[in-house]
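Record GOLD domain-containing protein, 231 aa.
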Amino acid sequence: MDSDLYIFLCIFNLFIHICCGAEYAYTIEVDAGKHNCFFQTVNNTHHKFMEIDYQVVDGGDLNINFVMLFGAKILLQETKKVEGSHKFSMEESGDYQLCFDNSFSYQTRKVLFFELFLLDENGSFDETNMVEEFGPVRQEYSGLGFEMQKFQKASNNIKNLLNKIEYHQSLLRAYEARDRAIMNANFDRVTLWSVVNSIILVIVGLLQVYMIRSLFEDNSKLGQLLRRQHF
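=>
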């Protein structure tokens, strides 16, 4: 294999690895009276912090109960929140449990969006050091001033910036979805009550016409009753 092609493939593999960070994003639906739980395995030798952001985007009053557990230990518990953002220190390795509870709702399901980030001790997206895997390449190109460590550092910086952009874009999409759900709910509510008020106005108008006509009809029982009460 040509040496230039070989180094290109190595760099490409490194970049692909770096771009696959410890981050997860999901949009889920929690049925009425139900709860959904997710498990995330954490190795605290690599990941020192966990950050989670969630937001209810559709359903009912746009609220949900949230619980984070490690074994039987409750790390965080929130009740009927529209959104939340939390950062935890991972003191132990193991399976962390994230639960979204909609058991307080009897009829309305909830749609929510949440993101999970595993961070290193500096609060950055932790990436496994790949320099050792490219030792022969680094030695081969050391004479040209090519350093894999610098490339990895630059790639990690790019990755962190892209993650921030992706996070804000996802947050804006979640806000947009929530605002659209609120707008649709308000539209349906306004339409319903407008129809009800229109029907009531028509009924009241017809009733008034009937009562006024009955006042001028001698054979109308309603007219006789109204005239008797008036006089």
